[in-house]
Amino acid sequence: MKLTVIAFFLLISSFAAAEDQLGTIKASPVSCLASGLQATACYALNITCPEMPEYTAYAKMFIPPRPVGAIIFTTGGDVNNIYESYKYGGLAVQNVLAANYEAVELTYGEPFSDGLGWQHDAGGVGVRLASCRYATVVAWVSSQTHGVPLCATGNSGGGQVIGEGLAHYGLGNYLTFAEFTSGPPFSRVDYACMDNVAPEIEYCSGVDIGMSVGTQDAINYIDPAYPGPWCSSSLTDHSTEHEAQFLDDSVTSPDAVLSYPNTTIHFLFGGLDTTSAIRQGLNYQSQIVQPTTYACVKDASHSIPDSLEGAQTIATELIANCR
User: From CA 101, how far away is CA 148, in angstroms rounded?
Assistant: First the structure.
C-alpha cells in the first residue's frame, strides 16, 4: 500500500450504487503508540459527512511487502477500540498478516483518543446517515490499496456499519468479501426498538427471543444517533412515533440495495450469544440477492473474537475469501 503522508481528501464516489453520499477525509499521520501489535503506520482520519459534525477516526495499519489483499477490522458497539482489544483479536490480525494481507484496525476512540464512537455527536441524524463515517473510511482505504482486493470484518455494531454501507453507500463497489460476526445486530432498527416481533428459537444459540436489542443496548448504541432516547423510549413506552425513520434507517429498509454481485458475504454466529443479533443478522442474510453462507461457533459468545476458535475461524475465512 502506498500511504498518504500529507492530508488526503476523498472525493464523493461517483459510482456508489446507493443514493446516500459518502463524505470526505483529511488523513494525518499520528504516533502508533508503544503497546500492542507493532504497526507500520497510524492515521487520524478527520471525517466530514453530509448533515453531521466532523468526527475523527483512527486507522492502525500493518503493511507487508507485496500484499495480496487488505482487510479492515472493526470491533462492536461504538467501534471505539481496536480489534486487538478482543482476547484473540490480535491473533486474527497476526494470522492474516502471516498470509501476506494488509490489516487495518479501525477505531473511533481508544487507544488514540477518548472518542465515543461512530454514532455519537452525529447531530441526531440517525444510524443510517451516521454510518457514512464508516463507509467513507472504507472508500479511503480502497484508495490506498492500488488494486488489491479489499475486505472487511466487523463484530456486532462493527457489522452494522458494514451492512449499512453495503445497503446504502455502495460498498459493494469496494469490498470483495465481508465477514459479519454477531450481526448486523439491528438490521431492522424498527424491530430492534419496538419489540414487535414474536420470539423464535435462534439458529446456533437455541435462545427463544424476539428482535429487540433491549433497553440498555438501545441506550448505549442506538439512542446516541438520534435527537433523544428514541429507541429506548420506544421500547419502554411502546410508541410507534419514530417507526418510519427506524425502518428507513434499517440495513433492510425498503430502498436498500441488497444485490452485491462483486462481494462474497459470510455470517458467523456464536452458540453462547443470548442476544437477538442472530435473528437480526439472518434477517439481512435472507434478503441478500446473491447466495451467502453462515456458520456457528458453538463456544463463542456475542463477542466472537474473544473465543480462540472464533478468532481462528474469522482469520481463516478472510484468507480464503479475500481474493
Answer: 10
Mean pLDDT value across residues 72-90 = 97
Model confidence at 34, pLDDT cuts 50, 70, 90, reads confident
Q: What is the 3-state secondary structure (H, E, C) of 124-135?
A: CCCHHHHCHHHH
Other C-beta atoms closer than 10 Å to the C-beta of 87 total 14
* Residue ranges of domains in the chain, CATH in brackets: 24-321 (3.40.50.1820)
Non-local CB neighbours of 154 within 8 Å, separated by 6+ positions: 73, 74, 75, 76, 79, 160, 161, 162, 179, 180, 181, 183
- Asked whether 309 and 272 are in contact (CB, 8 A), the reply is no
208-238 pLDDT, tens per residue?
Answer: 999 999 999 999 999 999 999 999 999 999 9
- CA-nearest of 264, 321, 298, 277 to 155 is 277
Indicate the length of the chain as a whole number.
323
Burial tier of 216 (Cβ tally within 10 Å: 0-12, 13-18, 19+): exposed
